[in-house]
Every structure is written in structure tokens, then in C-alpha cells.
Design goal:
281 residues; alpha+beta; two-stranded parallel ribbon; 6 strands; elongated
């Protein structure tokens, strides 16, 4: 199933490289079949209810013909929703349908960002062309011929389908050596880290030993600079400062704020670095 899966590297404007595994036609086909089973099973249930409601009402009132047409109209609307609206809504809002979720897939833009509703609608409208002449032969040929394994809908919408990384539970993060009172005296009592900053710092502390000294130092400076400036902190070691900030915010009962609740807003680079660190080997 993964024979045609491949990897692609995307470099952000900050020169951080993300690695994504592209989904091949086998896994995408599995997701599509699962979606059809889920969607048409729901439609069958709705159809049974429509038959019971409209059929029973028509028999009692003597208007079976008119109600039968109305019921058929409901089923046609349901079929349209199953074939078109279901895929566009789920992909536009979450990046994946129920079938893609089960298969471990997600639709993103070619720059690795979440797709919006416009792109989701466009890629699904062109699904009709991908299905030509039958059995999605045009779409499969397009996937085989493009570097990002894109069908025609993906090419038009600027999207691609990737394999989601599996996540595992993490052990409690311990700062070593433990914070010294003299170090903590240099850190303000009120330390506010938003979600992106805290996530980026935690991932950095967990993986800094695997990044290498120069890369670790570079990332520590990038992460620590805006926080140190915001809190007027001067500290000689950026990596150690991040550990102390995390300890103060996470373990000493200090606040963790959503990104939109604080002025000035956090550096958007924190979210980018967090995503990069999540994928770092």
C-alpha cells in the first residue's frame, strides 16, 4: 500500500524545512472507499426513514404520489450531499474526511498549510474530471505523473495529500540541572507563554540533544529572543533561559495564555518552529 508513497521537503520563508510523506493512490483509494461506505450507509438510513415517513403518511392521507415525489427529492438531495458536500465540508474544516482520518491522511496546500474551504470545494468539483473515463483513470494517471502525487483537483486547488505523523504520549519534562534559586531570581515572577511558545519550548527541550550544538544554539536564540525582550530579561545562555522560562510557567503555577489574548502578540515564528521540531528526527 505504501509502495508509491514518497517524501517531500518544504522550506519555509524562515529557512526551516518540513518533511512530509505523500500518500500514494492505494491508500487514497482506501480512504475514498471508506468515505463512500460511511456516507452511503448514512444515506441508506435516511432513505429508510424517508420511505417509512412519506410512505406511511401517503397511505393514510391518500396522497402517496405527491409524497413519493417529495421523498424522492429528499433522497436526491441526500445523494448530492454525499457525493459533493460531504467531502468539501470535512476537508475545508478539518483537512480530512472520516475515511482519510481512518487511513491516516490529510489534505494540505503545496506549502504545507491547512487548506481552506475554497480549495476544498475546487478540488472536489474537479473530482468529476479525475473520474474519467472510468475508475478514476485520469486521476490515477495524474498522480503517477506529478512529483507531489496530485490528481487534477489537487493541481487546480494547489493541494496535496500527506500521511499524518503518529503521536505518542510524552513523559513529564524534567529540567536538568534543576533550576537554581540564583537563576530564578533573574526571571520575572509573572511569565506568560502562549500555546505556540510553550509547545515550541517544550519540544526544543526534549529534542535539543539530538539537534547538534550549533543547530540547538541557533534555535534557542530564535525562540528566546522575543520572550526575553517582552519580559526585559538578560540571560547569557539562551537554551538555559528557555528551560527556566518553561519551569516558571509550567511548574510554578504561572499563566499560559492563548495567542490572541496578550499584547503584543507572540512571534508567529514560535508556531513554525514548533511544527518543525515536531517533525525533527
Amino acid at each position: 500500500m505504501t509502495a508509491l508513497d514518497t517524501a517531500i521537503a518544504i522550506e519555509t520563508p524562515e529557512h526551516i524545512v518540513f518533511q512530509h510523506r505523500l500518500a500514494g493512490p492505494a491508500r487514497r483509494s482506501l480512504a475514498y472507499v471508506l468515505d463512500l461506505v460511511i456516507a452511503y450507509s448514512a444515506l441508506a438510513i435516511v432513505g429508510a426513514i424517508v420511505i417509512l415517513v412519506f410512505g406511511g403518511s401517503g397511505a393514510l392521507s391518500g396522497t402517496a404520489g405527491a409524497l413519493g415525489k417529495a421523498g424522492m427529492g429528499v433522497l436526491l438531495v441526500g445523494a448530492f450531499i454525499v457525493q459533493w458536500v460531504y467531502f468539501a465540508i470535512f476537508e475545508g474544516l478539518t483537512g480530512r474526511t472520516l475515511g482519510k482520518r481512518a487511513a491516516g491522511l490529510r489534505v494540505v496546500t503545496v506549502t504545507g498549510q491547512p487548506i481552506g474551504m475554497q480549495a476544498a470545494i475546487l478540488r472536489n468539483l474537479i473530482r468529476a474530471a479525475d473520474a474519467l473515463p472510468s475508475a478514476y483513470l485520469v486521476g490515477i494517471a495524474s498522480i503517477a505523473a506529478t512529483a507531489r502525487l496530485q490528481r487534477l483537483g489537487d493541481l487546480a486547488a494547489g493541494t496535496m495529500v500527506i500521511l499524518e505523523e503518529s503521536t505518542v504520549g510524552a513523559s513529564a519534562l524534567r529540567i536538568f540541572p534543576p533550576p537554581d534559586p540564583r537563576e530564578l531570581a533573574l526571571i520575572p515572577d509573572e511569565v506568560s507563554l502562549d500555546h505556540d511558545e510553550r509547545r515550541a519550548i517544550e519540544l526544543f527541550l526534549r529534542r535539543s540533544q539530538r539537534l547538534g550544538p550549533s543547530r540547538s544554539h541557533e534555535l534557542a536564540l530564535i525562540l528566546a529572543a522575543p520572550i526575553a525582550k517582552r519580559h526585559a530579561i538578560t540571560f547569557p545562555n539562551a537554551a538555559r533561559l528557555l528551560a527556566l522560562l518553561y519551569d516558571r510557567a509550567a511548574n510554578a503555577g504561572r499563566s499560559e495564555l492563548p495567542a490572541s489574548s496578550r499584547v503584543p502578540a507572540s512571534d508567529p515564528l514560535s508556531g513554525t518552529l514548533a511544527r518543525w521540531l515536531e517533525r525533527a528526527p
